[in-house]
């Protein structure tokens, strides 16, 4: 898997751990050179222009571009949907995403209609399983900031999540998924994709 190439400098045991975690939960975005002759991973496909009037599509984020003269990172988000994302490179992801080091990984720590969403609706708080942060455990160097998109609205996050991210030496910023995508685009363009990461649930989560 292409994204694992960045871990080649890690000790052998850590590399095996990284491969196990990533294979189990994540799929990397193919590079442009690979995309022409490889099948896209499960959950990824070449984006098509949505049908006019499609209510599944949220406001596009290109309208919020305030750094138009600076090239956007490959992992920039063009639009958010209730069930996924349209990336700046034209790929549509039907799932949550982690954007890290200019790579895009599918992320599914909570399902629509699952217990996490039920708790979010009744308590206004997001709780996720420990394994949701496995990618951040193995990546090096770690980002300075993680922008967490909590779905249709901004939710409080459990103390366990805040402690987990803090122990990794990463600052956490929490907001709705649409706002998180816009914030990621701005900061990753301004400061670089290696310093800024985002973990975003689908836009319809908690709606």
From TrEMBL:
UniProt cross-references to SUPFAM superfamilies, sorted A to Z: MTH938-like (SSF64076)
Task: Extract the InterPro entries matched here.
Answer: MTH938-like_sf (IPR036748), NDUFAF3/AAMDC (IPR007523)
Q: Name one Pfam family in it.
A: DUF498
In this chain, the stretch annotated as Disordered covers 28-58
Which domain of life does the protein's organism represent? Eukaryota
Biased segments, Polar residues type: 46-58
Q: What is this protein called?
A: NADH dehydrogenase [ubiquinone] 1 alpha subcomplex assembly factor 3
Q: What is the lineage of its organism?
A: Eukaryota, Fungi, Dikarya, Ascomycota, Pezizomycotina
